[in-house]
Amino acid sequence: MVEDLGYDAVDINLGCPAKKVVKCGGSGLLRDLPLLERIFRAVRTAVKIPLTIKLRAGWDEKSIVAVDVAKMAESLGVEAVAVHPRTRVQGYSGAADWSIIAAVKQAVKIPVIGNGDINRPEDAERMFRETGCDAVMIGRAAATNPWIFRQMQEFAETGRYAIPTEGDRFRLLIDYYGQICAANLPDGVGKMKQFACWFTHSVGNGSELRRIVHTARTPGEILSSVERFFEGRAAALAGPSPVGAGRSEDPGHGPSQHLGYEATLGT
Questions:
Q1: Distance between CA atoms of 257 and 83, rounded to whole angstroms?
Q2: H/E/C letters for each residue in 9-75?
Q3: Which one is catalytic: 16, 133, 181, 197?
Q4: How confident is the model at residue 234, as a pLDDT?
Q5: 106 Cβ partners below 8 Å, 6+ apart?
Q6: Is 16 an annotated catalytic residue?
Q7: CA dihedral 195, 200, 201, 205 (to 10 degrees)
Q8: Superfamily per CATH, domain 10-142
Q9: d(CA 171, CA 182)
Q10: Band of residue 239 on the pLDDT scale cut at 50, 70, 90
Q11: What does the pLDDT read at residue 139?
């Protein structure tokens, strides 16, 4: 069906750790490799468009199966594999074990896409260097810093990248919220509050902005509150600078001094 609808590829997600998903799919399938083999065969037979998978390291630390699953997938015609090197039991806690990505890359010839703990361009460069992966996949970092893709390209080309200003953050937030209001979505307020949970962690005094958004009851009220918040921030930033204020720091990505790093992304 997906092929008939014009989709470019089919991706089987073996990475989702949500409780309601793992009962019958997601990373829960990593506990049953014979079933996975049957699924891969059936989907590969059903479609001619590219077939890819994303997987976790395994269900828990006693069953790390990423290499085995990747090799099986390759043998059955899967054309790329994305690896998030945490187990399902870990969820998003602890550090991603990039050595698992490297092991998968050594074991298969199909493209391997690395994922996990890439929060800034320097992380992507290090993942390429340490794992030999063919590409990187950005997940949660994109919700808190939507500029990361542009920053990665800038870092690869110049060795430095721009950090978004308060004005950049305001324009992106208010534009997104404006689109939600214009669409008149029944769950518009919920979407606005959800995005606030992610995006405002990189905004100065973001906890206050989250409080404002979460106490509002309508999309229009949220828009007005966000505009007032950033007007107040702009006024505060325009005032006298305290001693040491010349050192710019982005809450999500550290001090601006890192702009001088050399670019080695993808080499």
A1: 31
A2: CEEEEECCCCHHHHCCCHHHHHHCHHHHHHHHHHHHHHCCCCEEEEEEEECCCCCECHHHHHHHHHH
A3: 16
A4: 79
A5: 132
A6: yes
A7: -160
A8: Aldolase class I (3.20.20.70)
A9: 16
A10: low
A11: 92
Give the DSSP letter of residue 94. Answer: S
List the chain domain ranges: 10-142, 166-238
The Cβ-side half-sphere exposure at 136, using a 13 Å CA radius, reads 28
CA atoms within 13 A on the CB side of 107: 20
**What letter would DSSP give residue 247?**
S
Distance from CA of residue 113 to its chain's centroid?
13
Maximum distance among all alpha carbons in the chain? 67
Residue 1 binned pLDDT confidence (cut-offs 50, 70, 90) = confident
What is the identity of the amino acid at 67? V
What local confidence, expressed as pLDDT, does residue 249 receive? 39
What global pTM score does this model have?
0.81
**pLDDT recorded at residue 246:** 39
Tokens 């896409």 appear where? Answer: 113
Identify the DSSP state of 27.
G
